[in-house]
Amino acid sequence: MIRFSTKTVFEQGVFNLQRSQADVFRTQDQISTGRRVRTPSDDPVTAARALEVEQSRAISKQYQRNNDSAQAALSASENAISNAIALLQDVRTVAVNAGNGALSSNELKSLAAELRGRYQELLGIANSTDGNGLYLFSGYQGTTRPFSETTPGSVAYAGDQGSRLIRISASREIPSSDPGSDIFQRIKNGNGTFVTEAGEDNTGSGVIGPGTVSSPIAWDDDANPRDFTVRFHVDSTMIPPVTTYDIVDNLSGDSLLTGTAAAASGPYLRPYTEDGTIALRRQVPPDTNASDFDYGAEFTIKGSPATDDQFTIQASRNEDVFTTLYNLIETLESASSGAAANARLANGINTALSNFDRDIDNLLRVQVGIGVRLRESDDAYTSQEDLVGQYDETLSDLRDLDYAKAISDLARQQLTYEAAQKTFAQVQTLSLFQYI
Amino acid sequence: MSIFQIGVSGLNAAQAGLLVTSHNITNANRDGFHRQEAITETRVPMRTGAGFFGQGVAVETVRRAYSQFLDNALLQAETQASYLDTYGAQIRQIDNMLADPNAGLSPTLQAFFSGVQDVASNPSSAPSRQQLISLTQGLVARFQSFDARLSEMRTSVNRQLSDVTAEINTLSGEIANVNDQIIRLQGDPGKPPNDLLDQRDALLSELNKLVRVSTVGLSDGSINVFIGNGQTLVLGTKSFELAAGPSAENQQDYGLFYISGSNRIALSTDNLQGGTLGGLFDFRRQSLDPAQNQLGLVATVLAQTFNDQHELGMDLDGVLGEAFFDVPLANVIGNQANSGDAVLAADNTDVGALTGSDYRVQFAGGNWIVTRLSDNTSSSYATLPQTIDGVELSVVSGTVAAGDSFLVQPTRNGARDIDGLISDTAKIAAAVPIRAGADLDNTGKATISPGVVVDTDNAAFATAGALTPPILIRFTSATQYSIYDNTNSASPALIEGGIAYTPGVQNDVFPTAGSVDYGYRVSLTGAAATGDEFTVGYNSSGVSDNRNALLLSALQTANTVANGTANYQSAYTQLVSQVGNRARQIDVQSKAQDTLVTQTREAQQSLSGVNLDEEAANLIRFQQAYQASGKVLQIANSLFASILELQ
Taking a C-beta distance cutoff of 8 angstroms, is the pair B209, B271 a contact? Predict the structure, then answer.
């Protein structure tokens, strides 16, 4: 038979009471904090996992903050570029009006004065700053004024081609700024492939159109010199006078039509018809060039060119918006009367119009790019929000208390504790000494 | 013999029984008390012609209910419980500290990198930069305060070791005293001084809770007490002293010394299992050291890797980035017993390879033996310097003698020594010092990458605020380009020409085929045209550039720790997980051990404890025996009287 020492019975009772009490308090503590895991030792795996998830959550939150910054920066750029587009569209309308031939030279000069104002306005837009006073379009050099006029009509870019990236998700960094050179400067003039230009000393009324590329492959061919002059000759001995033209390869000095050195004066091989297509392609007859050629470009000339009038066709160069606008202003200012002057005005306006189209295209391209990034940033923000929600859920699953279980646990533990208390008190009253 | 004598012997026996029972009752609640019993025996019978007549009863001895087996089992259980209690109490402090959101590293680490990203989003914003500096201070302060609390625990362990050894010395002294009394009182081994034995057992139990002991009983009643693997603590009536003090190997940590005469002999702490002492030593070795090392590892790697990237950047003033953090250094402690005068240096040359372990470097006459203490693996080297786990060990001065040893702690002080060095908002290097650009007149579609700097110690960055030389890349055909020194942009000087270019793939410009390398990388992609030009120059006034800040923020999730297996956060998580697991393990073991102690004590008390009901019954029994023996005397008396009446 096992004997119990009275001391053991007492100690055992107290030990059990303490253990029950500890259980009750622990559950009560869990309920009052709502946390199942209070210290890492409660559940080491969960505690470690929770730390990882917390970092992921903090990073997602940070991406959202980054998104806010990106949106602010992109919206500021977008706003400036919208203003620039509106301005250029206005200017284009002015140019179209100026070209309708109904305006006197004085009226044209007052239009030019108006455009000078727009020119300064455009310069202001290109030098826009954000809320912190930093230039939007100067690349990495936020404190450097990007565009300034060195000489009238010549605007220099002092920024660089850097673009600031902002991380909006674990796998994506989006540019939050665009360098000004890409927006206002790096724009091909003419039709984007080649540019047509009337000679300054032309005396006839010939007006050249911007032209089109009939074959991009032919134009891009390495054999293409991409520099041509169209020369006119008017034989006024004939009635009506016969206008002919030659196309000269400026690199070699040869006539395309003959394949030999260009003649100094006409008449030339190809006859000119007004508004007819002039193609940089062999046409036999009348061409006598033995070797076939096709440089993939064609254009039209209207009006009546005079003898020795010249038009050039060259590969497009980058021309900034300021130069285009300034050239238009100068064209309008120098307007005078007479067929040649009218042709000069028309040619100038034509050039300006095709360049403005290119400018607006480029600004739209940038604007669309910003719009896409804004939407991407929106999407990223939303998906980060979803992620944060998922992380919250995971954290809750990991650490938070199952109340139903905890409360039923507490009830059970309380019952045990109370029973232990009651029986302990009862057992302690049992003693033989009460009877002697 | 007479009835009287028999009656008296009965009275005496009953009285002895009552005495012992009262003694039991009064001592029922005393720890270490063993229930006593008066052992009686029948007196030698008287031989008569009619045979043997009993002579009554005699009290032979008073014996305690003692089982060496049960008492030893209890001692074993208790020393282990005390070990677990001590370990648990210590590790719970770290556990609680980790659970406290105001003490853990995680929130500040996350806040710090949020600050870096804010600077990346707004590189020239002074408030963002100021915020990062404040967050850096917060991070550093958190590392330091965390470390300070761990160091406090280290000091507290040292103090407890001193206290415990003092208590051990007191107890062993008392045991020797009790031994002395027992030897003098115990004439007849059959009549033991029970209460003194109880007293000694109680002392032994106390001692055993502090350090696991083994005992050997001697014939004179005394016991010898040993600790560890045989160091004598008590030898009969003589006790020996222990002392705690700075160990020869590591003067920051107390070791245990055995005082023998005027000698202090260091005791190996490995053999001290169980008890408070064992708990303290094991806690320090298994939990505190790794925790502090791991925290230091995070701090060291963070400081070094962040600095490395920061120094590749350019600040708001256009100057190359400086060190962002003060990088903690490895700690080397020479053994006090070293006879040579060599000074060993340890340099954390490759923080990515650090393990968080400590190392013992020993010169064994001709060979250096380096032992990684976390797993006790050794490697032998004929000469130093050697790099082991990212730590370069070298002798900086002096001569080493055989047997000299050094303790190398690469990351022990990491969390204590990390510090922020940047206080000027402009000094945060958010930009990259170079920028690349394409000429406006380019007709091709090739683009140049923004550029990455890999080495600012390159001569190209030797002149402040300039790239020497600035570079011009010019295409001589669609598939070939040349690199020029663009210092004089009017007539660039050729550096290397005829470099092949492949459209459609990424063409890395540096290092060139001719091994020109200026410490940065740019690449060209896309179809280029003859005459296209690209430039690379210094990023002067690049205040809105955030490229380096982006690279800095990417470090948060880069696996830079432990040979590319962990990032800062997961390295810290390892610490949390280690401590949590250990604390839980100790907690579970401790609960099991408590149950074992309870059960063992129950068994021991079942034999040796006092059951008051039993004693009450005994009281009645002995009272009745006494009354019965009195009756015997009364009868004897009446018998005698009846004889007197005959006259």
Answer: no
**A92 and A215 part of one domain:** no
Q: Do A7 and B557 touch (CB under 8 A)?
A: no
Quick check: A59 and B557 CB within 8 A? yes
Looking at chain B, the whole-number percentage of residues with pLDDT higher than 90 is 66
Q: What is the CATH number of the domain that holds A133?
A: 1.20.1330.10
Query: Which of A252, A287, A315 is the endpoint of a domain?
Result: A315
CB-based contact, B440 to chain A, within 8 Å: yes
What ipTM was predicted for this assembly? 0.81
Predicted confidence (pLDDT) per residue in B546-558, tens digit = 999 999 999 999 9
| Interchain CB contact of B598 with A (< 8 Å) | yes
Task: Decide if B286 contacts B585 (C-beta within 8 A).
Answer: no
Residue pair A265/A257 in contact (Cβ under 8 Å)? The answer is no
Min Cα distance A308 → chain B (Å) is 31
Same domain flag for A223 and A239: yes
Q: Do A131 and A232 belong together in one domain? A: no
Close Cβ partners of B208 (under 8 Å, ≥ 6 residues apart): B75, B78, B79, B275
Residue B624 contacts A where some CB pair is shorter than 8 Å: no
Q: Which residues pair with B438 in a beta bridge?
A: B534
* CA distances from residue B329 to A23, A364, B326, B417 in whole angstroms, order as listed: 46, 56, 9, 8
B98 interfacial to chain A (CB closer than 8 Å)? yes
**CA nearest B277: which of B335, B285, B378, B491?**
B285
**How many cross-chain Cβ pairs, A to B, lie less than 8 Å apart?**
208
Same domain membership, residue A133 and residue A111: yes
More confident position, A238 or A141: A141
A141 and A198: one domain? no
- Predicted pLDDT of residue B225: 93
For residue range B96-107, list pLDDT tens digits in order.
888 776 667 888
Same-domain check for residues A56 and A185:
yes
User: Cα distance from A170 to chain B (closest Cα, Å)?
Assistant: 9
Q: Decide which of A315, A339, A369 is a domain's last residue.
A: A315
Bridge partner list, B481: B475, B499
Cβ distance A38 to B546 less than 8 Å, yes or no, reads no
A142 contact residues in B (CB cutoff 8 A)? 123-124, 543-544
B570: chain A residues, CB-CB within 8 Å: 52
Tell me what the mean pLDDT of segment A365-377 comes to.
93
Domain extent for A45: 35-189+317-400
Q: Provide the whole-model pTM.
A: 0.86
- Residue A212 sits in the same domain as residue A98: no
| Shared-domain flag, residues A49 and A161 | yes
Rounded to whole angstroms, how far apart are CA atoms B232 and B213? 10
Residue of B544, B579, B620 best to disrupt the A interface, most CBs of A under 10 A: B544
Instruction: Tell me, yes or no, whether A23 lies in a domain.
Output: no
**So where are chain B's domains?**
3-65+611-645, 330-410, 434-538
- Asked if B122's CB is within 8 angstroms of A132's CB, the reply is yes
Check A58 against B450: CB less than 8 A apart: no
Residue A241 lies in a domain: yes
Instruction: Please indicate whether, in this complex, the C-beta atoms of B543 and A142 are within 8 angstroms of each other.
Output: yes
* DSSP element (H, E) containing A26: helix A6-33
Could you tell me the CA-to-CA distances from A371 to A175, A377, B480 in Å, in that order? 12, 10, 37
Interface contact flag, A140 B114, Cβ < 8 Å: no
Give the list of residues 6+ apart from residue A335 with CB closer than 8 angstroms, or none.
A105, A108, A109, A341, A345
B614 near A CB under 8 A: yes
Chain A residue numbers touching B35 (CB-CB < 8 A): 5
A12–B602 C-beta distance less than 8 A? yes
Cβ–Cβ gap B609/A7 under 8 Å: yes
Residue B647, pLDDT above cutoff 70? no
Domain count, chain A: 2
